[in-house]
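Why do we bother with holo predictions? Because pocket geometry can differ from the apo form. Keep that in mind while you read this record for shikimate-3-phosphate.
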Amino acid sequence: MSGPLIVLVGPMGVGKSTVGELLAERLGTTYRDTDADVVAAAGKPIPEIFYDEGEDHFRALERQAVRAALAQHTGVLSLGGGAVLDPTTRGLLAGHTVVYLSMDVDEAVKRVGLNTARPLLAVNPRRQWRELMEARRHLYTEVAGATVATDDRTPDEVAQAIIDAL
Ligand code: S3P
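The structure, written out:
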């Protein structure tokens, strides 16, 4: 468990976990995911946190998870798709190696569509995806030093593209 910390950001469904695990394997390091840390801390799945306590509470738990992971982890770290919405979380990323995995709206609808396990896409996935991307794209590019498009790439190709971009 050594090596530099690489942080992956980008929308849900872009492949942060799949690519992150592959990337960690290639670099001979470990993978960590702040969504999993939040679930462990809360003792319940993310849709239940949203439903029971609301998004603000989720973002607060996420902020703590990001802070702890950045302090403790070396290797590859994925953040939840909305982590960049929180200004404090964005600030925590300053000085770290952050890669934005991007995809266009058509690709997002195709890959994720209406996925009830992801509470933000309950109705009209295409419109919600467009709005979500418009609201977040500039935040991803603000925190990231490199952007890697995933649209026409396999997870293996995306992992390689990240290595090439660093
Ligand atoms: C969210 C993305 C999810 C998870 C939560 C909120 C978002 O993470 O953190 O459901 O606001 O986009 P993934 O990007 O890992 O799916």
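The CA atoms of residues 29 and 75 lie 5 Å apart.
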